[in-house]
Inverse folding.
């Protein structure tokens, strides 16, 4: 996305999105927030015994810091990282499927239930300025966690295979897209819909304000 900022204007920070997710780019763009995409190289690996909420926040912070530490400190720029996970009723973290058969198996675990979708969001500055607050991550990033409840209707294995064949499952946690054909299974969403898609925009805007961005930088 093309930013309206002038890179030479050191008084106007340019937000960097540390994610190649087109959904996150769409959400920020629709919110009127100028940004540039620089994709993080962090692997999305779960640690043994790690709680789902800790996983989402850790990965968001790691992605954020991975990009922030690779960019010049001057001019200082804020970097936004995010990670979205799907958590089944059995508290199992459902990541992105490896193939269509895996996607159908993941979906079979959540259809007919109400599951959680969590997005960890983190912000850091390229100049390494301290963002330590009561809400900050031990790494020094400023973080927040969006949580939504998604209720799905029951579905047959044939329906799941038919949906997966549409082709939108493979890069989605849990194997479905709320904003796409996956809506056929959704009975209701409690909480932020943009969180389910990949970025809780209200919480993200508030986090960016806490990190020091001015309202004019946030499309307000």
């Amino acid at each position: 996305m093309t930013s309206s900022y002038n890179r030479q204007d050191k008084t106007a920070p340019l937000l960097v999105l540390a994610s190649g997710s087109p959904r996150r780019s769409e959400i920020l763009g629709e919110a009127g927030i100028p940004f540039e995409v620089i994709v993080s190289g962090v692997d999305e690996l779960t640690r043994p015994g790690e709680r789902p909420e800790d996983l989402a926040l850790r990965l968001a912070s790691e992605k954020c810091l991975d990009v922030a530490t690779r960019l010049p400190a001057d001019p200082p720029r804020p970097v936004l990282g995010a990670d979205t996970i799907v958590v089944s009723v059995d508290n199992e973290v459902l990541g992105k499927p490896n193939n269509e058969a895996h996607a159908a198996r993941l979906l079979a675990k959540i259809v007919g239930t109400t599951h959680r979708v969590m997005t960890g969001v983190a912000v850091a500055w390229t100049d390494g300025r301290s963002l330590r607050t009561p809400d900050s991550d031990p790494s020094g990033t400023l973080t927040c966690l969006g949580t939504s409840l998604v209720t799905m209707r029951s579905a047959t294995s044939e329906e799941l295979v038919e949906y997966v064949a549409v082709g939108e499952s493979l890069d989605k946690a849990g194997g479905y897209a709320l904003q796409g054909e996956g809506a056929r299974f959704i009975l209701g969403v409690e909480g932020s819909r943009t969180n389910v898609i990949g970025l809780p925009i209200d919480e993200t805007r508030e986090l960016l304000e806490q990190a020091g961005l001015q309202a004019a930088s946030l499309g307000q």
